[in-house]
Predict the 3D structure of the following.
Amino acid sequence: MEDLAALRDELIGAVEAAGDLPALDQARVAALGRKGRITDLMKTLGTLDAEARRRAGQELNALKDAVAAAVEQRQVVLAGRDLDRRLAAERVDLTLPVRPERPGRIHPISQTIDEMVAIFAEMGFAVAEGPDVEDDWHNFEALNFPPGHPAREMQDTFYLPDRADGARMVLRTHTSPVQIRTMVSQKPPIRIVAPGRTYRSDYDMTHTPMFHQIEGLVVDETTHMGHLKGCLVEFARAFFQVDDLPLRFRPSFFPFTEPSAEVDIGCSRAGGEIKIGNHGDWLEILGCGMVHPNVLEACGIDSTRYQGFAFGMGIERPAMLKYGIPDLRTFFESDLRWLKHYGFVPLDIPNVAFGLTS
Ligand code: DAH
């Protein structure tokens, strides 16, 4: 049998000299593969007598293990180097200016959220956020949903496996749980809007299982329904850029507000096309009301001292109306041609003073 110490130096030397992963694999196959050097030697064991075979077998196995260990070690080094090289090659300097020859586009949903937030920020609202995966308490119970309320039924809520502590988890069906998170963690006065993704098991021409809403919440000692009305009239006129846009508040029901209202804005449907403005017809855009005392109390806020209003509005529909986007489902198809057509210039950041859109 050949000199195993020299063979060991040679094989491990080849492994350590491998400069990349394919070269390492070659070195591995040359030593340990079906026709590799060590495998060849293993095949000669049968020609030895019992004692010599036992000794040579042990030595070959030790050599095999040593080479395999060297391969493994080298692999870790080379894979790390590969990753470093890729990270260096794909480095993005976020401080560089936009490249005008390769313009990206802001999705109309992001643009619409930015516009809505700009309007509410001007009125003194801060932005609040909450998780997409919520527990039953924040999404329903603290919002005064009675047991058996239709919104809790399986057909439109996405349920997730229970958490380790037994909490029942859902994909939030509205942004209203952010009201709860805010009231639990902050003391009044509170004035927030919460834009974000929401989920319901629904898919047709006018519904997608994931959609967006923006929630508003004001809590203090003096706010009343008149403030709610003024705030939403101001918002709708600024958003749709129609100064005499009429709004109509219709009595409605939500578990978490009392009294509750739905808000319609003026429109026309002449020729099968919806046009926003003072044209005699009505289109519903949001739900609102005075925060129910049970909701305040669930969050540890004294409902005999504090009151406030809340509202919740979908984002896709106002975006479609404002920007003439005819089909809801196209929002989420990630079609670059669509995004180029309906998207917005990245540095055109909505601002109430300088204009929401150009
Ligand atoms: N969460 C309601 C929904 O998804 C919308 C809503 C209605 C939110 C009234 C509110 C509100 O804050 O006051 O249908």
User: Anything to note?
Assistant: Residues 50-89 form the longest helix (40 residues). Residues 174, 176, 215, 254, 257, 287-289, 310-312 surround 3,4-dihydroxyphenylalanine (CB under 6 Å). The chain has a mean pLDDT of 93. The chain has eleven helices and ten strands.
